[in-house]
Each structure stands twice: as structure tokens, then as C-alpha cells.
Amino acid sequence: MESSPSSIRKGFILAGLMNMSVLLFSKLFTNPVIPKFDPVVMSNFGLLMILIWGLAYISVANNYHRVKWLIAVFAIEKFIYGFTWINWHLNNSITEVFDKDLFAGMFYAVYGVNDWIFFLFFTYVFFNLLKN
């Protein structure tokens, strides 16, 4: 199954924009609740790096076909965040986060779903590029 280059391009842009939503959930990095519940991965520095990854996705949207191994790196990165999200949910209470802050609760509720979706997207793109 092949997707059009235009659709794939839009996928990269959407992935980047989704990462940029960290600005909303973190209230421009002023929300102390997100880092409180995962100070290693979701520190303000970690949230900034999520934003930077998003910019990286957008930066290759027009030329993704020239950087297939970077797309593999994107897939690995999304896998790691998705796995980390599952692990977080197995060891923490999302209810506690929602009790402290709605935006932080929404962030912890959905960020991994986003990561798994884009893991599949980047993996799909990578394997299609490998065939060419």
C-alpha cells in the first residue's frame, strides 16, 4: 500500500504540530505538574526536547525521501516514548495527575497514544523508502 508524497508530507507536519502541543499542555513550560509526575522524562528540558523533535519532523516534510535512516530514528524515538508512556501508566495514577491539573492529566492521558500512532507512521514511511 503506497501513500501519496503529499499525504506523507502532511503526516510529518502533523507529527511536528502534535509535538508542539506540548506548549499548550505545559502552559508554555510553566505547568509544574507535568515535571512533578515524571521528573526525568518530562522535565521542562524534556518537554523542550519534545518540541525540538517536532521541529525536526517538520524540517524533513518536503525531503523525507532523502533521509530514510533519519525516519528510522524518528520511529525508534517514538517507540521509546510510547514504551515509556505505557510503563508510566503501569506505575502511576492518571487520576492523581488530573486531580492536580487538567492539562497535565490530558497530557499524560494522550501523549503515548500520539507516540504510538506516529511510530507506526514513521515505520511505514521508512519501510516504504527501503523498497525504493
Number of DSSP strand runs: 0
Q: Please tell me how large the radius of gyration is.
A: 15 Å
Overall 3D geometry?
elongated
What integer is the average pLDDT?
96
Q: Which residue ranges are poorly predicted, with pLDDT under 50 across at least 5 consecutive positions?
A: none
Helical percentage: over 70%
**Major β-sheet, in short?**
none
Order of helices and strands: HHHHHHH
> Into which percentage range does the β-strand content fall?
under 5%
Helix/strand structural class: mainly alpha
Number of helices: 7
End-to-end gap: 13 Å
The overall number of domains is 1
What does this structure look like?
This protein has helices spanning 5-20, 22-25, 33-37, 44-59, 68-91, 94-100, 102-131. The protein is an all-alpha fold. The protein has one domain.
Structure characteristics:
mainly alpha, 77% helix, elongated
Task: Annotate the secondary structure layout.
Blueprint (H helix, E strand, L loop, with lengths): L4 H16 L1 H4 L7 H5 L6 H16 L8 H24 L2 H7 L1 H30 L1
Helix pairs in contact: 1-4, 1-7, 5-7, 6-7
Short description:
The protein is mainly alpha-helical. It is 77% helix and 0% strand. Helix 1 packs antiparallel against helix 7.
